[in-house]
Design brief:
Blueprint (H helix, E strand, L loop, with lengths): L4 E10 L2 E11 L4 E5 L6 H8 L7 E6 L2 E2 L5 H5 L2 E4 L10 H11 L4 H14 L15 H13 L5 E5 L7 H18 L3 E5 L2 H7 L2 E6 L2 E6 L1 H6 L4 H7 L2
Helix pairs in contact: 3-4, 3-5, 4-5
Length: about 240
């Protein structure tokens, strides 16, 4: 089976310093790959490269079997969805925020209404549909961001530390709901996090990144039970 995303020989230099050196990552359709590591490991740099917001110094990224850079920028971005640490919501209602991507695509009004209502309801914020987005709590705002992403039915969902700013009870509830949605939709997902418990909760595979390199990749329990070296064991608390 052809991987949805294949990264090989990827180098990223920033201000003359090598910050990312990845020999290979493959992401299969339907899997949730968690990329874990401490702050400064290079996780968010990889996220920016995959989102085509930062240009790599060297290497190849294949998406849907084609070189990523062979896609026009807009065409590529229409096939991915991004969820960031801080929800980037427009100064409009919850409903309008969730619908904005489909409106940009020129989707029929009936399709927009059906999709937005479904995903606001599925993520537990349908009762807030007419509320101004700027008046939401952090957890509510992140749920709206997720609804806006899922309504687009992207080929690839990219999550960059989306639960960092949430209090523990809110984070736990959102993790449970997101896990349920990912199990239902089988949406291919790359999940950036420094939190090992989040990775265990959501991921079907886990990659440990240290100092810009992937040290180990495999099923989460396999990585936890059999770290490949002392550095990985140290990060995992072994």
């Amino acid at each position: 089976m052809t991987a949805l995303l294949q990264v090989s020989d990827l180098l990223v230099r920033r201000e003359g310093r090598l910050v990312l050196d990845i020999q290979s990552i493959s992401v299969e359709r339907g899997e949730v790959l968690a990329i874990v590591g401490p702050n400064g490991a290079g996780k968010s740099t990889l996220f920016l490269v995959l989102a085509r917001l930062l240009k790599a110094s060297q290497g190849q990224i294949f998406f849907l079997g084609k070189l990523m850079n062979s896609f026009p920028s807009l065409e590529y971005r229409r096939q991915i969805a991004l969820i960031l640490q801080e929800p980037l919501l427009m100064d409009m209602s919850v409903y309008e925020n969730a619908a904005i991507g489909l409106k940009f695509r020129g989707s029929p009004k009936s399709q927009i209404e059906e999709g937005v209502k479904h995903w606001l309801n599925r993520l537990g914020v349908a009762h807030l549909s007419q509320r101004p987005a700027r008046k939401l709590s952090g957890g509510e705002a992140q749920r709206v961001s997720l609804a806006r992403a899922f309504v687009l039915q992207p080929e690839l969902l990219l999550l960059d530390e989306p639960f960092t700013a949430l209090d523990a009870p809110t984070r736990i509830r959102l993790l449970e709901d997101l896990k349920s949605v990912l199990n239902e939709t089988r949406m291919t997902t790359i999940f950036i996090t420094h939190d090992l418990q989040e990775a265990l909760k959501l991921a079907t595979r886990m990659a440990v990144m240290l100092d810009g390199r992937i040290e180990q990749i495999g099923a989460p329990q396999d990585v936890f039970n059999r770290p490949v070296n002392d550095r990985v064991a140290g990060f995992l608390g072994k």
